Amino acid sequence: MTLPGPLNPPPRLLMGPGPIDADPRVLRAMSAPLVGQYDPFMTHAMNEVQELYRRVFVSSYQETLLVDSTARGAIEAALVSVLEPGDRVLVPVMGRFGHLLVEIAQRCGAEVHTVQIEWGQIAPYELIADAMAKVQPKLLAVVHGDTSTTVVQPFDGLAELCARYGTLLYADVTASIGGNEFLTEEWGVDIATGGLQKCLGGPSGSAPATFSPRAVGIINSRKSIEAGIRAEGDAVAAHPIRSNYFDMSMVFDYWSERRLNHHTEATTMLYAAREAARIVLEEGLEAFQARHLLHGRAMLAGVQGLGLEVFGDLEHKMTNIVGVVIPDGVDGEAVRGRMLQDFGIEIGTSFGPLQGKVWRIGTMGFNARQDAVLTTLAALEAVLRREGFGLPAGGGVDEAYRVYAEAAA
Amino acid sequence: MTLPGPLNPPPRLLMGPGPIDADPRVLRAMSAPLVGQYDPFMTHAMNEVQELYRRVFVSSYQETLLVDSTARGAIEAALVSVLEPGDRVLVPVMGRFGHLLVEIAQRCGAEVHTVQIEWGQIAPYELIADAMAKVQPKLLAVVHGDTSTTVVQPFDGLAELCARYGTLLYADVTASIGGNEFLTEEWGVDIATGGLQKCLGGPSGSAPATFSPRAVGIINSRKSIEAGIRAEGDAVAAHPIRSNYFDMSMVFDYWSERRLNHHTEATTMLYAAREAARIVLEEGLEAFQARHLLHGRAMLAGVQGLGLEVFGDLEHKMTNIVGVVIPDGVDGEAVRGRMLQDFGIEIGTSFGPLQGKVWRIGTMGFNARQDAVLTTLAALEAVLRREGFGLPAGGGVDEAYRVYAEAAA
């Protein structure tokens, strides 16, 4: 067999639900040389990353760090570190990623209760409150922004409910963090886990996470230091966390001044996470979110201007993604194929009950930009017309321009 | 708080047990733009990576792929996907990473039996055979090259033992793959997992792994597809794998033609893994290993030429690392500190019973080079002399030169 040649990806504009085009600054940061695991530069960079992500999460929690996996792994790290077999968990399921929380909690051996909501709607506070009273769970696990439905879940009142029942509050902010308001500490969230590949504009493979002192206390009470590096007096738990890799009590030690060896930190992904947070905070978190709101509104107006129906509860729409109902008689996959092959633009499909019924168009991170929005709308119009779908000429681009003009006025 | 500045790592020559300096080609590959998760370019690149790593593992196994974690995560992925609670596992423990296998298997709920060997020695075949007869385990888990002791474990006869007792054979090749001979399929190894940050010359954060059809059969018998994407007729196991992220049956589907969504592949780490394998295979796997052998021999001769004692069984020394006994009266950490701060060169310490007693000097991947070897020896001599340790002037460099001259003759 001959060897494949040098890497040469085709030019793409990634306007789906993520990954999106990484910010070129993040990609450049990833070609920086490595240093050793305990090099003063490395441990200093780890400390910087902690401080940067405290600001992204709006959290003063000491245990704010990176999990060396994709966003999904960080969800598991949070859940498996907290949950012992038999623990009760409550999950409002409003879309695919609620199902994922259920699935992961079940694999932790937890007793999982759900509030099932129609995809595209939020979970009403009253339903969650009723279920909390019944279940009185150890953990309430909530997806903040579920890209499968484009809806963002309000967290009002959840902290008070959790306080009432001694429940920990977990939030999956993979798809929302950075681009949608999320105040970890003010909202009383004990654990939040994210990902780089959405609004933060990096590649997937590293997952920022933040843990409240209360969560850390529960996790550390389960600590068990592995035999190969255990010192006299070190903890050996009776029922240790079921995972070694995702045992956050050991990961906390690794990120602490103690620097107890666990895995070998994924240095290049840490470089990426550091640069991604710097980009957010240079712009300013509020300005960064306002930019997501603006370009998300322009994209929404644009698809409506093309005469397309929008999916889901628009009052609770994520800033960074819109669901578009695939019109009757239009082959959704053919449209996505032409967009990609002929225009180099990726838009997304959806999952489960929405598969084949909804496209998902993202405006996030580096791609929350006017040129990306207008180009996507122009291409979508062109493709739909060639697919035989009648639509107002220029209606998408015009409506987006209108949003931009109003914002500038 | 002001923001930290752009990333600006100090120049380092990383001659420890890993991570080592990533090959600049790998770093450059990591700044390539992203593509979507199901872009034809991406799925083609995934297929290329599978074929490249089949050649690195010397394995025809279909299920050869990347685990999106550091090397430690891939060990856990292998063990948790195979082991059900109560399953018997046998682990020969010759160093720190044997302890790690024990620890991970225990967290899977397995009944773990060990053969305990003095650090620095191999596990003799007879001891393993006796234990296999007694335990008759589901899995024999063996570290191939343990950087904590610098020793490489022979696999002769292990496949036959495993066949006798219906045991799966797992090998942790994190530190050995590429730089030491390892013939996955010929040696009857069912599962091998590696890492990029040692001989393969990449950053940590992605872990190549290969699974035999027999291992795949056992893992797939435990398959349970998650609710959010489950189709009619899809598998729901009674005792699913305890992890979702490391459930290899789902990861196999993701890497198969079915492309069933699991995590979002860490694209940039995949780019790195692809380039790392291309570099190995361009040189040729045998030439790549011969290069590791040569520079490892030069480094060994060099430290001996400095009058230093070498740790461990030299007959079974890994090509890519040497253990150096810290001489009486020398402050090991002071020497490492001067090497790093004054010369920009990192050498390693060790763990457990060897902590403070042994330095570890690596010659691997991009750093298995004459200039790296000679520079390290010259710096080590200079530092030891300033620390007041008497040693033959130029003795290290001279001996290394002698090895190179003999090899060239």
TrEMBL record, chains A, B:
Domain Aminotransferase class V: 42-347
Family, per entry: Belongs to the class-V pyridoxal-phosphate-dependent aminotransferase family.
Protein name: Alanine--glyoxylate aminotransferase family protein
Organism, as annotated: Demequina zhanjiangensis
Domain of life: Bacteria
Known cofactor(s): pyridoxal 5'-phosphate
GO terms, molecular function: transaminase activity
Keywords on record: Aminotransferase, Pyridoxal phosphate, Transferase
